[in-house]
Write a structure and sequence with these properties.
Elements: E1 17-21, E2 29-33, E3 52-55, E4 61-64, E5 71-73, E6 83-90, E7 94-99, E8 102-107, E9 111-113
Antiparallel strand pairs: 1-2, 3-6, 3-9, 4-5, 4-8, 6-7, 7-8
Length: about 120
């Protein structure tokens, strides 16, 4: 069984890489570089921790971002137009957003980045 690894770019010495060692008689080291395939955009549409966001649609269910979370029907607590800040990112495009009434886990389809003009 043959194994080949092709790299089209040169790996710099101080880049983040992973090294895997095999336990066979001949010691072989495979170097794998992990990077995203999406083009990096310099626009303000990219969300990151601390980014201001605005709710564009009220979610039907809301879940608190506490260690003991509470899932309940949104009875007008989170409304369109509410402004908050991203606290952290969770799997599957769910974000912890700090609003004036507390911190909630909100799906990314319910808010958008807030563009602040100077």
């Amino acid at each position: 069984m043959a194994f080949s690894l092709h790299c089209s770019t040169q790996i710099r010495p101080h880049s983040s890489i992973f090294q895997f060692k095999s336990s066979g008689a001949p010691r072989r080291i495979a170097v794998v570089r992990c990077e995203t395939s999406e083009p990096s955009s310099g626009g303000s549409s990219k969300l990151e921790v601390g980014s201001p966001v605005i709710v564009v649609e009220a979610p039907t269910m809301i879940k608190t971002a506490d260690s003991i979370s509470c899932l309940r029907v949104n009875s007008g607590l989170v409304k369109p137009g509410d402004v908050g800040r991203v606290v952290s990112r969770k799997p599957k495009d769910v974000w912890a957003v700090r609003l004036a009434i507390g911190t909630y886990l909100i799906d990314g389809k319910y808010f958008k980045p807030l563009v602040l003009e100077d």
